[in-house]
Amino acid sequence: MPQLRPKSQSRDVKIAVIGNNTVGKTSLSLRFIYGDFHPGYFHTRGGDIYLKQIKVHDQTVNLKLVDTAGHPYQRSLIGPLYKDADGVIILYDVTSEKSFNALDDWIIAAQENNCREVVLVGNKLDLCKDSKKQEEVTNELKLIADRHNLRHYLVSAKTNLNVNRPFNRLLREVLQRQAAEQARALIKDKEEVHQLQTTEKQVSGCFDCIMS
Ligand code: GDP
Fold this sequence. Notes:
single chain, alpha/beta, Rossmann fold, 22% strand, binds guanosine-5'-diphosphate
């Protein structure tokens, strides 16, 4: 029977970063995990997995972060890597229209792979120097996020702008959902035990009737 875990017990959370090639998935993952930025393109074959233990409020989380490859020829292969992820970051590059136009396909892929919490994130904001361009980028991201009812963020893995925000948001939502699911399972179990006890009483009552 599932027990309500004490808050101090750690939880396992799997988060994946998906999106087109060169949008900065590896840079974002490394920035979040190690806190630094290494310029240059990292060739991700299939997927890389990073493990990190972090605290979310008073809860210890064993985070498994999956950084996936984004080449079109690899897309069908990487699905199993982020299938059933608790949370997924769909990343695009704010200077690449092609990566922005691919967001709809990635959203569908996340749904098909049963990813539970999804956020849209635009990376490389440091390359949008003027405020007019930044406003344009913000508006177009908001439009697609609203259409799909998803949260959205603009970040820079290079300058570390806002990098923690989508991760923290996902982690909080995943923990809340896990706690709610656990509570529901406990209630269901209690109901089943109660039902069983009631049935047992009825059966033993009938048995007493027969015997007397
Ligand atoms: P991936 O293929 O999606 O994993 O992309 P990478 O992390 O390998 O990054 C592709 C290129 O974009 C590399 O040259 C990175 O240095 C660069 N890059 C990644 N994030 C940023 C960012 O926030 N700002 C800038 N200016 N460049 C970035």
